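Notebook entry, structure prediction.
Reason for the run: the old model in the group folder had no record of what sequence produced it. Starting over properly, with the input documented here first.
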Amino acid sequence: MSGKVIFVTGARSAFIQYLITHLLKYDFNIIAVTRKMTPSHRKDIHWVECDLIQPNLEHVDWAEIDIIIHAAGVSNTLNESEMEKLNVGSTRYLSSIAKKWKIHPFIYISSIFASTSCGKYGLSKWKAEEWIRKTLDHYIIFRSSQLYGYGPDNPIDRLVQRIAQKKFVLCPTGDGHNIKPLYYEDLALILLTVIMDQKSINSSLFYVLGPDSFSYRELVQRISKTLQRKPVVVLLPQALMVVMEYILLWFKIPIGVYPDQIRRFYSQIPEPEIPVYPLTYKKFSEYLHAFCMSDQEKS
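New structure, fully documented this time:
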C-alpha cells in the first residue's frame, strides 16, 4: 500500500466515519473491523470481519500497520459481562499486538466516565486505560464527553427529536451536571489533528469535553426553550430510577434503558486533573438553532 495504514475499530460510528472520510483525502489507507459485512458498508476502505468480544485477527498483516485507533466499545447492554469482555479484553488484545509489532501511536477513545466509581462501563474503560498505560510506551487516550449531532442513534439527538415532536417528555431528576454535549465532528477533527502531527504529542491522556454542562432537567429546559416548545415534563425522582435499575437488572427487560446507564447517570464524574484538549468546540446552542431552522423549513 502507498501511504500510511491505519487500523480502526468502531469504524461504523458516526465520528469515526467522518474521520475516515478526511483521512482518505490525505492518502491514508484504512483497515477497519466489522462484526459482519453488509451491503451498507462503505466501499472505499478495507474491512476485516472480527467479533471483538472474542478477537482473532491473526490474518491481518500487522507489519504494514502504522497506527491503531481503538474506538469500539459497548456501554448499554443487559448483558453487563460484555463490557468487560469487549472494552477491556479487546484493548488488551490490540495493545499486545501494538507492542509486538511496534505500532504507534495507539489511540484509544475512552470516556469521561472512566473511573472506579461510574458503574461497570466506567470501570471497564478505566481498566482498559490502565492496561494501555502499563503496556505501551506510545499511546494517546481521549476521554470524551457525550457525543451528539449524528442522528437518532444517540440519546441527546433522540431527546431533541422527542421534544420537537412529542407532547410529553420523561425527565429523570437528581443528577449532577454530568452532561457535556460534544459535537461528533469536533472529536473527529481532534483525532485528525493528532494523526497529522504526531510529533507534537507524547504519550498522553486528554479530556475532550463539550463547552457546556447540564443536568438532564436543564438540558430539557434548554432544548425546549430554543425550539420554542412547551412539552409536559414528567419528573422521575431518583428513588424511582434506582428501583427501575434493580428491576431491569433482575428481569432484563428490553425497554431501551439499561441498569448501568442509570448508575452512570447518578455517578460523580471525576474532575479533569489534566488539560482539556485545546480546540474551539461547537456550542450546543448553535446546533439547536440550526435544528430549529431546519425544522421550520421542513414545515
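Summary: The first helix runs from residue 14 to 25.
The old model has been moved to the deprecated folder.
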